[in-house]
Specification:
Blueprint (H helix, E strand, L loop, with lengths): L2 E8 L3 H14 L4 E5 L4 H7 L5 H8 L3 E6 L15 H10 L4 E7 L12 H4 L3 E7 L11 E4 L9 E4 L6 H17 L3 E6 L5 H14 L6 E6 H10 L6 E4 L1 H14 L9 E3 L5 E3 L18 H13 L4 H16 L2 E2 L9 E2 L2 H14 L1
Parallel strand pairs: 1-2, 1-3, 3-12, 5-10, 8-9, 8-10, 13-14
Antiparallel strand pairs: 4-5, 4-11, 6-7, 11-12
Helix pairs in contact: 1-10, 1-12, 6-7, 8-9, 10-11, 11-12
Bound molecules: nicotinamide-adenine-dinucleotide (NAD), 3-isopropylmalic acid and manganese (II) ion (MN).
GO biological process, one term: L-leucine biosynthetic process
Pathway: Amino-acid biosynthesis; L-leucine biosynthesis; L-leucine from 3-methyl-2-oxobutanoate: step 3/4
Catalytic activity: (2R,3S)-3-isopropylmalate + NAD(+) = 4-methyl-2-oxopentanoate + CO2 + NADH
Length: 360
């Protein structure tokens, strides 16, 4: 049966890196129908909306979405609903993509590319599970108003609402425990329960869900300590489950343990098995259009697409093995380049992955 994949390149380096991942998907002997559509600033320029109805409909009707990145400084002055970032937030919300998997794996060849000492990061393999459709990202009310009371009464104030419903915490906690069951059976829930009501509630629900998973060793950590522990001794972690905001920040931090944010893929899944796959980084406007962006996070996201949305585990492994082979050959985009390795551009990195794939 043909599988439908929506391809949404977006802004900045998005088109360059997605092009390489598309080449990889096309090189596999699978029955895929890839359809491209505009998203983010590119869509705003064309259709005056970052997530045009046709793009959303295409995503909804697809088995999976391959997404590049959105955003550029030139859109920062637009009213919020027209900013490129609303496209990815809108897709996550409309498709119900509540479970964001961000694996931070250090390939042995990149041990020296990390800013941390090789002995601290060697063998690193962490799965960060970030809740993606709740928290302060989507809580209402939010906005700017005249402060209603207290010391600042009458002044303007900005405000957002951090909130989680019980069912939202339960379903992401279950994903955390189920993932831990498939790995080392250790789960660390990260919160700020010493200060935030939402976090104490999160922790209480996670403890309740833990009763269904007696074989998993559950621990809790405050987010500030987790940020510190991730650089001090990252290998103490296996699976981390956390809310939307903390997960956003910790996954960027974890990315650097692996050498570059250009190495960190992600999968965002809903309850129906549909998924959106994107690198964890942004549109990197500072390096866009120069053929220097690392396409590996996007290619590895395509591997996650094969595994989680298409049930093609062996093809996913082939793509991951091709990435490893290319790193073993010493090919590096500038973000992971070090003395003794060969510097290549975005397209050449894509060529090398394709070659490795054809040899496998
Ligand atoms: P960013 O992730 O785009 O870039 C941060 C730094 O990492 C930059 O120096 C960039 O050059 C580098 N970098 C990122 N990806 C890289 C890659 N593949 N190869 C090599 N280097 C890479 O974050 P930012 O600068 O804070 O944000 C830029 C824009 O991207 C903003 O508009 C932001 O809102 C948006 N953004 C979008 C997404 C998304 O679409 N999901 C995610 C994060 C940020
Ligand atoms: C990410 C990004 C997004 C987020 C932005 C662009 C809305 O930083 O995917 O990590 O904060 O979730
Ligand atoms: Mn982020």
């Amino acid at each position: 049966m043909t599988k439908k994949i929506a391809v949404l390149p977006g802004d900045g380096i998005g088109p360059e890196i997605v092009e390489q991942a598309v080449r990889v998907l096309r090189a596999l002997d699978l029955n895929l129908e890839l359809t491209e559509a505009a998203v983010g600033g590119a869509a705003f320029d064309q259709f005056e909306h970052p997530l045009p109805p046709l793009t959303l409909e295409l995503a909804q009707a697809s088995d999976a979405v391959l997404f590049g990145a959105v955003g550029d400084w030139k859109y920062d002055e637009l009213p919020r609903e027209f900013r490129p970032e609303q496209a990815i937030l809108g897709l996550r919300k409309s498709l119900g993509l509540f479970a964001n998997l961000r694996p931070a794996i250090l390939y042995p060849e990149l041990a020296n590319a990390s800013t941390l000492k090789p002995e601290v990061v060697a063998g690193l393999d962490i799965m960060i599970i970030r809740e993606l459709t709740g928290d302060i990202y989507f809580g209402t009310p939010r906005g700017v108003r005249s402060a209603p009371d207290g010391r600042f009464a009458g002044e303007r104030e900005g405000y957002d609402t951090m909130r989680y419903a019980e069912s939202e915490v339960r379903r992401i906690a279950r994903i955390g425990f189920e993932t831990a069951m498939k790995r080392s059976r250790k789960l660390c829930s990260v919160d700020k329960a010493n200060v935030l009501e939402t976090s104490q509630f999160w922790k209480d629900i996670v403890i309740e869900v833990a009763r269904d998973f007696p074989e998993v060793e559950l621990s809790h950590m405050y987010v500030d300590n987790a940020a510190m522990q991730l650089v001090k001794a990252p290998r103490q972690f296996d699976v981390i489950v956390t809310g939307n905001l903390f997960g956003d920040i910790l996954s960027d931090e974890a990315a650097m343990l692996t050498g570059s944010i250009g190495m960190l893929p992600s999968a965002s899944l809903n309850e129906k098995g549909q998924g959106l796959y994107e690198p964890s980084h942004g549109s990197a406007p500072d390096i866009a259009g120069q053929n220097v962006a690392n396409p590996l996070a996007t290619i590895l996201s395509a591997a996650m697409l094969l595994r989680y949305s298409l049930g093609c585990a062996s093809e996913a492994e082939r793509v991951e093995a091709a990435v490893k082979a290319v790193l073993a050959q010493g090919l590096r985009t500038p973000d992971i380049h070090e003395p003794g390795t060969t510097r290549v551009g975005t397209a050449e990195m894509g060529d090398a992955v394709l070659n490795a794939l054809q040899r496998s």
